[in-house]
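Appendix C: a fully annotated inverse folding record. The material below is reproduced so that readers can follow the format used throughout the book. The structure is listed first as tokens, followed by the designed sequence.
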């Protein structure tokens, strides 16, 4: 059994931020990572045109700012370069291909025991530590919805984690399922590559520009949520007008309130709405079922498609391996305690990057966790 003061599960940006903060305080740690690289969601499962949705000042990790030469909204390749520099700077060395099967706390030894499967050798390895940090993130496992008749679909079905760009879809009819930021941006990418593009928008959604969101985040430092939300809705109406005639309805609750209460981000529009208004992207309601290449929608209409791209998000699998925790995480792998106490459990258990506040929230969590561990050592 290998022993270390702190065991971190996951080496995405949240795990890396935690490692850097512990490094700064000279606290020994180890990182267990199931993939063969750090930041695998960014390195292996992100589409080409992805940018950080928030301005860079809200996205840098602790103790190492972005280079001044970086643009305000950072593209995937530059963010990966930054992460490479970050890992090198703090000498972070995760143990790769370690899939955590089991973690439990012993009152007797007052330590966590973690069992991880080495996916290369197949062996089960045991680790022990006084503190355990869940850094496996909000986006652990791709979620595929159960749509009636999906197994009869004659075309290609891909999850957003397998989509890179629209080059291969130029002459095809493509349905994007999911109207979050990934869905909206992939729909735009497909339309830009000449695909006949449709997108399913099931629920009301706020549509804002990046500049509006930046303004809102700055205002939140000085003005209450409710007032900022009212200003955001007013600006959205001025810029986009009434989108309901195109199939996009605005929620009754404000965008920042919804982000905090439900983890539902507003859509950061970078050109999709213009193509929806021009008819280049068709908005469709929820899917009723699928029959062959025909997709039937809840308004009774049906359309044929060559490809379905599922931008249906992720689930967390923490509850399958974390045993004996009744205080920190719920069955969906999200914190039970409310912000700002969401990161701290009992018996030396912590979570990072689950506050639904993006990289900014993960950075704050990492610093809080490192400081708390330092005070307990």
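Designed amino acids, in order:
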């Amino acid at each position: 059994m290998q022993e270390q003061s702190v065991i971190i599960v996951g080496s995405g940006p949240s795990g890396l931020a935690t490692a850097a903060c512990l490094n700064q305080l000279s606290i020994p740690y180890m990182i267990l990572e199931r993939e063969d690289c750090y930041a695998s969601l960014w390195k292996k499962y992100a589409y080409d045109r992805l940018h950080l949705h928030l301005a860079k000042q809200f996205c840098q990790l602790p103790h190492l700012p972005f280079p001044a030469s970086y643009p305000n909204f950072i593209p995937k390749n530059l963010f990966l370069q930054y992460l490479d520099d970050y890992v090198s700077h703090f000498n972070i060395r995760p143990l790769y291909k370690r899939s955590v099967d089991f973690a439990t706390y012993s009152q007797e030894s007052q330590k966590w025991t973690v069992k991880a499967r080495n996916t290369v050798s197949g062996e089960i390895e045991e680790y022990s530590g006084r503190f355990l940090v869940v850094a496996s993130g909000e986006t652990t496992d791709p979620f595929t919805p159960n749509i009636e008749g999906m197994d009869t679909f004659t075309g290609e079905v891909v999850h957003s984690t397998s989509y890179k760009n629209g080059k291969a879809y130029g002459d095809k009819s493509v349905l994007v399922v999911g109207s979050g930021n990934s869905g909206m941006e992939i729909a735009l990418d497909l339309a830009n590559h000449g695909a006949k593009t449709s997108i399913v928008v099931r629920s009301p959604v706020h549509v804002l520009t990046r500049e509006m969101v930046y303004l809102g985040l700055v205002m939140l430092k000085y003005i209450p949520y409710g007032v900022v939300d009212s200003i955001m809705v007013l600006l959205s109406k001025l810029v986009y007008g009434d989108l309901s005639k195109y199939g996009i309805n605005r929620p009754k609750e404000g965008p920042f309130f919804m982000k905090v209460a439900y983890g539902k981000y507003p859509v950061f529009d970078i050109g999709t709405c213009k193509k929806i208004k021009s008819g280049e992207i068709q908005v469709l309601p929820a899917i009723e079922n699928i029959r062959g290449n025909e997709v039937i929608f809840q308004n009774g209409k049906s359309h044929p498609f060559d490809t379905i791209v599922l931008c249906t998000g992720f689930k967390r699998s923490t509850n399958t391996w974390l045993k004996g925790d009744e205080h920190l995480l719920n069955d969906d792998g999200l914190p039970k305690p409310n912000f700002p106490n969401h990161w701290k459990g009992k018996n030396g258990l912590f979570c990072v990057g689950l506050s639904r506040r993006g990289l900014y929230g993960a950075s704050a969590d990492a610093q809080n966790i490192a400081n708390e561990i330092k005070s307990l050592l």
